[in-house]
Predict the 3D structure of the following.
Amino acid sequence: MTNNHEIIISGSHMELTDALKQTVTEKLQRLFKYGEPIVRIRVDLAYEHKKDSKEDFAAKGHVEVNGAKYGAPKDAEELIEVLDKDVDKLVNRSQKKVLKAQFIAKGWIELKGNDMRANETSEDLYKSIDKMVDKLERMLHERSDITKDKRKHGHKLDIPANIPKH
C-alpha cells in the first residue's frame, strides 16, 4: 500500500525481485498527482521468448554442376564448401532475427469511473515499464483536463417548470 492506494504487481514467466517491485512502485507514484479517485493499480510483467511468424526464413537450394559452366568452381567440393558457408551465414542471421525476447508490461488503473488499461512490449523490461506508465499518465491527464473543463465551463440547464408567482 502506498499513499493509501493498492498497487498489485504480478509476473508471468519471470521472477519478481524486490528491486523490480520497488522500481515499478516508484514509477507509478507520479500517477497519483492527478487527484483522480484511484482505487487500485494492477501491473502484470511478462517475459515472452517466442518465434515471430513475420520473420520466418527458408533456404532451399538445388545445384547441378556439369563442368566449369556459369563461372562455377572447378571441382564440386570447392562449390559445396562455398555454399555451406553461405547457408551457415543465412541460418545464423535468420535465427538472430526470428528468436526475440519480449518483455510485456500491462497496467490497469481501477477508478470509480471507467478503468484505464495500457500495454507495452519491447526488448527491454524497464523500457516497457516506462512506456506503459507514460501511457497511463497521459490517459489520466486527459481525464483530469476533461473534468476540470467541465467544472470551469458548466452548461446552463433549462428545466421547464411552472413556478407559481406570489
Observations:
- The two ends are 59 Å apart (CA to CA).
- The longest strand covers residues 38-51.
